[in-house]
Amino acid sequence: MVNNKEKLLIVTRSTVYHNKSGGLETQLNNLVEYLKDYFDITILTTAYPYKKTPPKINQTKILRGVKYIFLKNSVPGEYGFTLYESLFWQVPFKHNIKSLNTNFRKQASLYYDKYLKKGFKVILSQSSSAQNFNIDTHQKLILINHGTSLNEIKNRYNSVKGLKHFIRFLLLDLPVLVIEACVNNPILFKKAFKIVLISNRLKKDFEKQHKIFVPKTVVIPNGINTNVFKPLNKNDSFTVVYVGRIDYEKGLDNFISVAKNLPKIRFEIYGDGPDSRDIKNQTPSVKNIIYKGSVSNKEIAKVFGTSHVFLFLTKRKEGMPMTILESLSSGCVVVTTLKDSSISGKNGYFNIDNVKKATNKIEYLYKNYKEYAKLSTQSKLYATSNYDYRVMGASYLHLLKKLY
Hints:
- The protein has helices spanning about 25-35, 85-95, 105-115, 150-160, 160-190, 200-210, 250-260, 275-280, 295-305, 320-330, 355-365, 370-385, 390-400; strands at about 5-10, 40-45, 60-65, 65-70, 120-125, 140-145, 195, 215-220, 240-245, 265-270, 290-295, 310, 335, 350.
- It is α/β, with parallel strands linked by helices.
- The chain has two domains: about 5-225 and about 390-400, Glycogen Phosphorylase B (Rossmann fold), CATH 3.40.50; about 240-385, Rossmann fold (3-Layer(aba) Sandwich).
- Helix 1 (about 25-35) crosses helix 13, helix 4 packs antiparallel against helix 5 and helix 7 (about 250-260) crosses helix 11 (about 355-365).
- It is globular, with a radius of gyration of 22 Å.
- The two termini are about 20 Å apart.
- The relative contact order is 0.11.
- This is Glycosyl transferase family 1 domain-containing protein.
């Protein structure tokens, strides 16, 4: 059978085969599931996960009808170390000189130049994965931008805990991110034909930080599978959940404070991360909190489907977390510190800015269940109309078809 589909190259550091429940990975998987009906897709990514011995050859696999190329000289799911990190941080302390040769952006560029450059007219890059690519005039590079480097500097600074973390921030995180923001990003944005921003909130930040490249931007929100994330029979006990990375920059200290203010309501925490041990040690002292640990995608759908409120008190500047969309699609009302003018309380999305307001909002929903039920139904309808992966996919398809 002759394949008449146009060829599309996607470059990404991580996929669902590296991280099953990550937001970036889930967004890409949903997008690929839609686009594979219209394009002959090849995904260039980092090494396939291994237990002990790194692969000695590049691996090509056909997975769910899509060709994946897993590069041997790379760290599974990671960009690897930059030149600065290798020379001034990684080598002196860990003596890992090989890190100089495992940077994914570098390896992807070398493989692309040698094997793929002549075969693809359009390249879709997750974040800065295709940063080192040499793009010819007849080719089009599309970037999917999930955040900005300047916002990440603020996030890293806000998450500093103690002198040790501050020294790391000052000597490692700050220099690397400043180089990204002031040198690498402008070069990459200049190469790009279009820059996809995943939310209107991100667009506002991008406009302030990269005015010259605003004409290249288009907003396409992330999409989720609304057939998987759907309302289920709600728990008998009114349940408030957090699902995500266990890190204090996600506001878990404030989550615990809200729980302490509402002893009659059940609170549950799902996920894993750098502060898991601390959270696990804290929660037994708060009788209405249960720390459940990490969960699979299927389990996340059940958690949101049976819970009443997703409490997301992040301290980070974020684009559009997949968990918020998954929660809305599951009829689980969102109470969060993330501001988004495109979603209102009528759609089951409430923006608050402190513990007291979060406490009051959850208590109100708990005591006014008929109104809560209406909001739950409305959130599902809103998510299906605006954030289904087919809505996202159709927007990308419209953008990509014009490039061939």
